[in-house]
Design goal:
alpha+beta, four-stranded antiparallel β-sheet, 2 helices, 16% helix, single chain, 155 residues
């Protein structure tokens, strides 16, 4: 089983959410939240700010911790072909500067401010739905129900 600890930014302004378009090695497009792997010895709080900068060009600050999500992806659905666990830490993030741009030499082709009602029509990572649910409900437990993959919603 593979394992990944990741930090994700939920940035909502004027009923729009900042999404990143990830392009897989096979050329498939999936919309997701800015964020990614927490490096060894890196604080997730710092990782989310680093990832926002790398993927979007924006400077950001963490406004609050929203919650944590853990998912196990079956080998038949994981891109690696082996069972994979992803633990994601979600932060509400506020943009403070910078210029929106694609990730240089990375898997994020572009980042876009997307009206929240339009999100349901996108091929997206379930992380988007988890992050928006956490931001909308702000549960005391920091946990919302799992979002099943299928249709437009991917792992």
């Amino acid at each position: 089983m593979s394992f990944r600890l990741a930090a994700y930014a939920v940035c909502v302004e004027d009923d729009r959410v900042l999404l990143a378009r990830h392009v897989s090695p096979a050329g498939e497009t999936t919309w997701t939240l800015p964020g990614g792997k927490v490096e060894h010895a890196e604080d997730p709080f710092d990782a989310v700010i680093r990832e926002v900068g790398e993927e979007t060009g924006y400077d950001a600050v963490v406004a609050r911790l929203l919650g944590v999500d853990s998912r196990v992806i079956p080998a038949t659905e994981a891109w690696s072909g082996q069972v994979h666990q992803n633990v994601g830490i979600f932060y509400q993030v506020r943009i403070t500067g910078g210029v929106l741009r694609p990730e240089p030499n990375g898997a994020t082709a572009e980042s876009v401010w997307t009206p929240i009602p339009d999100v349901v029509h996108l091929r997206r990572s379930s992380l988007v739905d988890i992050g928006l649910a956490l931001a909308r409900t702000r549960p005391e437990t920091g946990h919302v129900p799992a979002v099943p993959a299928g249709g437009l919603i991917q792992h």
